[in-house]
Amino acid sequence: MTNSKSVVILGAGAWGSALATLAKANDHKVHIWSRRSSRTLEKLVEDADIIVSAVSMKGVRDVVSQLQGLPLSPEIIFLTATKGLDPQTTCTPSQIWQEAFPNHPVVVLSGPNLSQEIQQELPAATVVASNVTSAAEVVQLVFSSNRFRVYTNADPLGVELGGTLKNVMAIAAGVCDGLQLGTNAKAALLTRGLTEMVRIGVHWGAKQETFYGLSGLGDLLATGNSPLSRNYQVGYQLACGKSLTEILTHLQGTAEGINTTKVLMLRSKQQNISMPITEQVYHLLQAEVTPRQALLELMLRDIKPEYNE
Ligand SMILES: NC(=O)c1ccc[n+]([C@@H]2O[C@H](COP(=O)([O-])OP(=O)(O)OC[C@H]3O[C@@H](n4cnc5c(N)ncnc54)[C@H](O)[C@@H]3O)[C@@H](O)[C@H]2O)c1
Ligand SMILES: O=P(O)(O)OC[C@H](O)CO
Asked: Which listed ligand is nearest to 62 at the C-alpha?
C-alpha cells in the first residue's frame, strides 16, 4: 500500500497502545518504543514518517533529549498526544517538541478519547491540530477509520490546552459525584469549569472557539462523566475519604490533572487570572481543605454577573 506510513510510538502505556491499535488497523507499519524496549530508539526512527509521543508529561523532556541526539529525516512529523504541562516552564508538550525540532512539523492530537473504549472498538472522534496544515492532514489520514473520526484544526495551542485543562475539571467532577451532589451541581461545575478553561486558555493565546469543540467541551464531558477517567477517579475517591497517596498507590496509569493543577495555580497567580475551581482542586490535592469545605468555598464566593467577571 503506497500510502502506508511508518509510525513510531513512544510510550507503551494505555494511550500509546490504543493509538498503535488504530494505526495498525489502517495497515500502517507501527513500532511501539518504551524504556524497556529491546530495540534502540535510533534503529526504530531510522525510516519513520511519524513519531508519536504518548508518554506522560514527566517523560516528555527525557524522550525529546534522547531523540535530539539522533540523525532524523527532515520529513519526519512529530505528533504529540500528551495532556500535561511542564512543571518547570509551564510549557505545553508541543511547545517543547517544537523548540527542540524547529524545522519539523509538530501536530497535536487531543479529544474525548478514553483509551479503554477505543480498545473496545467503540466509536470516537478526535482533533489533530498544527500550524502546518499538510502535516495535520497526513496524521488525519493515518488514524481515520469507520470507528475513529479525525478532524483537523489550525489552533494547536487551543486543542492541546483543551485536553490538558479539562483534567483539573475532571478531578472536580469526580468529587462532585463522590459527594453525590446531583445533576444540577454537576452541570454548574462543568459549565463554570469550561468558563475557567476558556479564561486561562485565551489569556495563553488560544482561540476561544476551540474550547467549544471536541478537545475542550468534548473531552470535558467524556472525562467529567466517566469512571474510566483516572482524573475523575482521583476526585471521586478523595470525596469518598481516601488520601491522595492511597489513591495513587492503586491507580492504573497517570492522572495528569494532579501536576496540571499545580502548574496552573503557579501560572494563574503570576498572571493574576481568577481560577476558583482550579484553586479549590489544588487545596484539596494538598489536603488543605476537605471536599465539603472546597464545595462551600465555591458556593459562597462573591455573587456576580455570569459574564464580564
Ligand atoms: N489513557 C487515555 O485514555 C489517554 C487518552 C488521551 C490522552 N492521554 C494522555 O496520554 C499520556 C499518556 O497517558 P497513558 O494513559 O498512556 O499513561 P500511562 O501511565 O499508561 O503510560 C505512560 C507512558 O509514559 C512512559 N514514560 C513515562 N516517563 C517516561 C520516560 N522518562 N521515558 C520514556 N517513557 C516514559 C511510561 O513508561 C508509560 O509507557 C498522558 O499525558 C495522558 O493524559 C491518555
Ligand atoms: O484517564 P484520564 O483522566 O487521563 O482521561 C483520558 C483522556 O484524557 C480522555 O480523553
From this structure: 1
Q: Whose CA is nearest to atom 24 of ligand 1?
A: 55
**For residues 162 and 110, is the Cβ–Cβ distance under 8 A?**
yes
Task: Using alpha carbons, select from 34, 39, 37 the residue that is nearest to residue 13.
Answer: 34
Cβ-Cβ contacts under 8 Å for 226 (sequence gap 6 or more): 114, 232
- Ligand 1, atom 20, residue with closest C-alpha: 13
| CA angle (253 as vertex; 41, 170 as ends), nearest 5 | 125
**From the CB of 112, is ligand 2 less than 6 Å away?**
yes
**Which is nearest to 67 in space by CA: 87, 90, 96?**
96
End-to-end CA distance of the chain: 55
152: β partners: 128
Beta carbon of 83 within 6 Å of any ligand 2 atom: yes
- Pull the grid cell for residue 237: 475517591
Looking at the CA of 224, name the nearest ligand. 2
Contact call for residues 83 and 164 (beta carbons, < 8 A): yes
Cα–Cα distance for residue pair 20/31, rounded to 1 Å: 8
Give me the domains of the chain, ranges plus CATH numbers: 4-153 (3.40.50.720), 156-298 (1.10.1040.10)
- Catalogue the active-site residues: 166
Tell me the per-residue pLDDT of 235-288, one tens digit each, with 9 for 90 and over. Answer: 999 999 999 999 999 999 999 999 999 999 999 999 999 999 999 999 999 999
Average pLDDT rounded to a whole number, residues 86-108: 97
**Biggest CA pair distance of the chain:** 62
